[in-house]
Amino acid sequence: MSNRNVTYHAEETFQCQPGIRRGRTFLLSSRHAAGHFEGMMKAVLLVDHGSRKPEANDMLTCMANLVQSMAGSEVIVRPAHMELAEPSIAAGFASCVEAGATEVIVFPYMLSPGRHSTSDIPRMVGEASASYPGVRFSVTPAFGVHEKLGELILSRAGLSVDASFDEAVANRCWDPACSENLCGDACRAKSSASTSHQESTSAPNEHQNQHQNQQLDTDQQRRTAIRNNKKGKSPQGRRR
């Protein structure tokens, strides 16, 4: 495979390099050196099971390419395999950190909330993160039940969508009995409730930060006024 540049919509260019080929899985190598980005940098690590079939492993690299083009250059996207192929989860996590990530969000590229996505992958990610104590990480639920997957199924079947749902409507339990138990962590109702809770808890923190900033500004103005009075200046800075 020859070197080729893949230009994303965000005008960030990556190279698929044969020099870092492992088996037949190709890693995306950013031209940015590690530490190039300043401040907080998030990375998305796509993790599938891994296969003895090279094409199955290479597909995840293509998916990482697609997600990278959608996310833009301010996000790092890397592929990894749980077993049977490289890069491993440990190698993928290290690649994210080397590219400048301060937070790694791991997405199990799996349909259902089985043992791998709910137990094995979180455990392996925790082990991989041990070498990087300053890097935050989290593991999302698997794909689960989502209207976009429903649209894809109908498209592949050559059928049109008769009824589409916006996110507010789709965020419900799709079990006919509405048990909210069948899908585990992938249940839309549970994930929606969790997101709403996170937003509600973050809102007071944002208000508190805003109040603290206003208080700091007030304190600064008070100190400035005191200094001006000591110097014999009016609040407008003119000497009396």
What is the number of E strands? 7
Strand order of the largest sheet: 5-4-6-7
Flag low-confidence runs. Answer: 1-37
How far the N terminus sits from the C terminus, by CA atoms, comes to 79 Å
The CATH topology assignment of the largest domain is: Rossmann fold
Number of helices: 6
Named CATH architecture of the largest domain? 3-Layer(aba) Sandwich
User: Class of the largest domain in CATH?
Assistant: Alpha Beta
Which percent range fits the helix content?
A: 40-55%
Q: Report the C-alpha radius of gyration, rounded.
A: 24 Å
Characterise the protein shown here:
The strands form two sheets. Strands 5-4-6-7 form a four-stranded parallel β-sheet, with helices on both faces. A three-stranded antiparallel β-sheet has the order 1-2-3, with helices on one face. It starts with a strand and ends in a 10-residue tail after the last helix. Mean pLDDT is 76; it is low at 1-37. The protein has helices at residues 54-71, 89-98, 115-129, 147-156, 167-170, 188-230, and strands at 4-7, 13-16, 28-30, 42-48, 75-81, 103-108, 136-139. The relative contact order is 0.09. By secondary structure, it is an alpha/beta fold.
